[in-house]
Amino acid sequence: MIKGLYSAFTAMEAAWRYQDVLANNISNSQTIGFKREHASLAPFDDVLISQQAPVPAPISARIQAVVGQIGTGTFIAEFATDFTGGMLTPTGGELDLALGDGFFQVEGDDGETFYTRDGRFSRDADGNLVTSHGYFVLDQDGQRISLPPSTVTIAADGTILDGQAEVARIGVVDFAPGQLTRSGEAFFRSEEAGAPIDGGIRQGFLEGSNTNLVEELTSLLAVQRTYQANQAVLARLDTTLDQAAGELGRLGG
Question: Is the domain of 16 the same as that of 50?
């Protein structure tokens, strides 16, 4: 019965944590460049159950036969980010950019480099190319990009052209699986340097979130039902233990 309590509790704890992940995915379903997270569930090790002889029997004879195994619940093995691309939406904006592969490099307020697929860029008061959060967009050499006041054209390889003159080239890098960690809604950081690539930039487009609302809501309902079912099991086992304790007290009296 104690194992039953433990199994129900661990299942509730896993459902609670997974519910937080799903809720975050749903709340960011309209966030440009957002990448959904998903949880991988894994079972705890099973416990071997054996039939035992009464206590007065010798120790060597107490274990009579193996009955079988019993599970002890599940836990969340890891949270992982789904980096599949979101749907591209045409905006016609001069500095709205979408990527085929890789990530834009941007410089945060404290000088730290972040990586994002949120391509909502603009000029700041000094003519620098910045993100919607005010971070500086970096070129292939990790330097800030200064734009002319005139309208620019941006090629698929990131080259920024003022007429026929090349102004700069936007840096796009990619990473091996597991090298990026989330840092905000649509930003990531890495301890490793990204590999420069031709990201297939599309000017006048933005990439939406890769969250599928129908799938996330369906999963959320399933997780809530799992939580409620194990909550009911936990309550029933608790009541049974109370009754058993009462009986033992009556017999002992």
Answer: yes
